[in-house]
Design a protein that fits this description.
With 257 residues, the protein is an alpha+beta fold. 20% of the residues lie in helices and 32% in strands. The chain has a six-stranded mixed barrel. Strands 10-11-12-9-13 form a five-stranded antiparallel β-sheet. Strand 11 and strand 12 form a beta hairpin. It starts with a helix and ends with a strand.
Length: 257
C-alpha cells in the first residue's frame, strides 16, 4: 500500500507540474539623508508601472556594466522628492535609473570625451525612449554634457549604500571587493519528466519564452530521477509571479536559484 501511495503521489506531482503533458554615492558633500533601512530598500525593489509599462528593479554586482544614452535634469526638479524619499538637489552627484537598486554607486563615462563621474542612484527615470540614466546637473557638468543635453555613456557598478567615495583612479575601481545587492535569482518550473529525452525535447521547444531561457535540472524522488524544466532570468519574485499570472503554463511555480 505504501509503495502504491508513493507512485500515486509521483503521478499527481508530474501532472500538476507539466503543461500539455509535458539590470549604479555622491562624489562630494550632500545634505540629503540616505535612508538605508531594510523596509525602505525592500520597497524600492518592488516593480512599478509608468505609462503602461512595468519596470522590475534588478539585482546587480560590482563590476556589472551597461551603456546607452544619458540625459540630465535640473531646475524643474530641484527641491522635489525623489523616488527614495530624498529631496532632489541638482548640485549633488546623484542620478535616476529605471531599475538599479537605490543607493547603487555607478561610474558614468562620457564616451565623447572620456570624462567620468561617480554618482549615487536615488531616483527613478528617465522615462524617455532610448535614455538609460538621468544625471544631476552637477554630474552632467562634470562630464561635459550640459550644452548637448545628452551623451553616449558607459556605466559600471562600483559600490552600494553610499559607502564608497569617488575613486582616485580607475585602478581603485577595478580592485573593489566583490559585492552585490541583496536579492536572488528566481526560476519558474514549467515541466517535469521521468525521461530525460522528453525533458530535452520540451526544453528545446521553450528555449526563449518572452526573453526567458529554459534549463533542465535533475532531481531524485524515492531514488527515481526527475528532470525538471525551468525558465530562468527573472530578477525578482514579483517578476516571476507576474509571468505565472499571464497563464502561459498551467501549474507553473517559483523556486529560488
Amino acid at each position: 500500500m505504501l509503495l502504491y501511495l508513493k507512485i500515486l503521489f509521483l503521478a499527481i506531482f508530474l501532472t500538476a507540474c507539466s503543461y500539455n503533458n509535458a539590470l549604479f554615492a555622491p562624489t562630494g558633500p550632500t545634505n540629503a539623508k540616505i535612508n538605508n533601512s531594510p523596509a525602505v530598500q525592500k520597497a524600492t525593489m518592488r516593480p512599478y508601472t509608468i505609462n503602461g509599462k512595468t519596470y522590475y528593479p534588478t539585482v546587480v554586482n560590482v563590476g556589472d556594466r551597461a551603456s546607452g544614452v544619458a540625459s540630465w535634469y535640473g531646475p524643474n526638479f530641484h527641491g522635489k522628492k525623489t523616488s527614495n524619499g530624498e529631496v532632489y538637489n541638482m548640485h549633488n552627484m546623484t542620478a535616476a535609473h529605471k531599475t538599479l537598486p537605490m543607493n547603487t554607486i555607478v561610474k558614468v563615462t562620457n564616451l565623447n570625451n572620456k570624462k567620468s563621474v561617480v554618482v549615487r542612484i536615488n531616483d527613478r527615470g528617465p522615462f524617455v525612449a532610448n535614455r538609460v540614466i538621468d544625471l544631476s546637473k552637477a554630474a552632467a557638468t562634470q562630464i561635459g554634457m550640459i550644452q548637448a543635453g545628452t551623451a553616449p555613456v558607459s556605466m559600471e557598478v562600483v559600490g552600494f549604500s553610499g559607502e564608497i567615495k569617488q575613486p582616485s583612479d580607475t585602478k581603485v575601481v577595478q580592485n573593489l571587493p566583490s559585492a552585490s545587492v541583496v536579492g536572488g535569482e528566481f526560476m519558474v518550473q514549467i515541466g517535469a519528466f521521468r525521461n530525460i529525452k522528453g525533458a530535452n525535447i520540451y526544453q528545446k521547444e521553450h528555449q526563449n519564452i518572452m526573453g526567458y531561457k529554459s534549463i533542465i535540472r535533475e532531481y531524485s524522488i524515492d531514488n527515481m530521477a526527475i528532470y525538471r524544466v525551468f525558465l530562468t532570468g527573472f530578477r525578482s519574485e514579483e517578476e516571476a509571479r507576474d509571468f505565472i499570472k499571464s497563464g502561459h503554463f498551467e501549474g507553473a511555480y517559483i523556486i529560488r536559484g
